[in-house]
Structure prediction request, 331 residues.
Amino acid sequence: MPLDDLFDEARRQLTICNSCRYCAGYCPVWPALELRTTLERRDITHLANLCHDCGDCLSACMYAPPHEFAVDPPSVLTEVREETYRHYVWPHRTPGRRATGVAFAVVCLLLALMSWQFTGRLFVVADTPGDPYEILPHTPMLIAVGAPSLWAAGVFGWAALRYWRDIHGSLTDLLRVRVWLTTFTQAVQLRHMTGCEVPGRRGFHMVLVYGFGLCAVSTTAAAYLQNTLGEHPPYPYLSVPVISGSVGGIAMIVGGCGLWWRRGGSGFLWALVVLAASGMLTLLLRETVAFGPILLLHVAAVVVAFGIVPYTKFVHSIFRMLSIHHDNLES
Ligand code: SF4
Ligand code: SF4
Prediction:
């Protein structure tokens, strides 16, 4: 649907909802809608990113299709939300599956060449089992992972800034720490997802998010041990990086597969599962000859994941968080 038509359709449906107000208690979309007598594009964009697509309002709606009003907020808000992702993230073009697959193969090849050039130990059992720097030295590893990470952070930062200026305006409100505390609490509890017609979706989503958080803890702890305390990997099985990474990896696999089971899969979901599974394999196989190839596959998965993450569904976490913050400031 052309963009203008999409916003007109969303405006039409939400105007009916604003007269009806039957769904007022279902989620934060409805109180936020009631605050508005006119609906500009920025209002519709904000409301779309507050919606968690739970479907409760549609199930309850007496004006849903086949009624002539054809009110279907989850569908129209989802379309607007997806348009938001394309609009605010630069470049607007989303890499397809084939391009992602080719990028993964090219990165694997480049990493293998670098390993052969620098260490020549890709298919050799490491002298110190599990030492990644016997496969690829620290500096090339840092550049390989650091460059796409900086790219993703830059794209996310710019998109978040543009989004916030459109839906809210004042940048100083981004510094309201107490409101942010409320926003983060609501986000980590997925509080706005409580109404959900798909059983288990919220639980699996939480497991996936917490697993991702634990993997971030693992990476941060490893960086601290290495750069501050001078302790280089491999780390013992009973250490913060290994325990948090293992629990986080298992949680990501369980959460990702669970969401696929309850909601159907997406490329992004599978990428997260592959990332977690390859990370777990590097731990399980770190004393075998398979450690080198598995490590390079995992690093390649990390490189490609960071490179394309602003164009995946992951971006919803940024926009939704900003919309929840805007909603908290309003209310
Ligand atoms: S979704 Fe239907 S029932 Fe709910 S507020 Fe809108 S028109 Fe009313
Ligand atoms: S689908 Fe759920 S989250 Fe979205 S507007 Fe309806 S009740 Fe709210």
Observations:
- DSSP finds 13 helices and no strands in the chain.
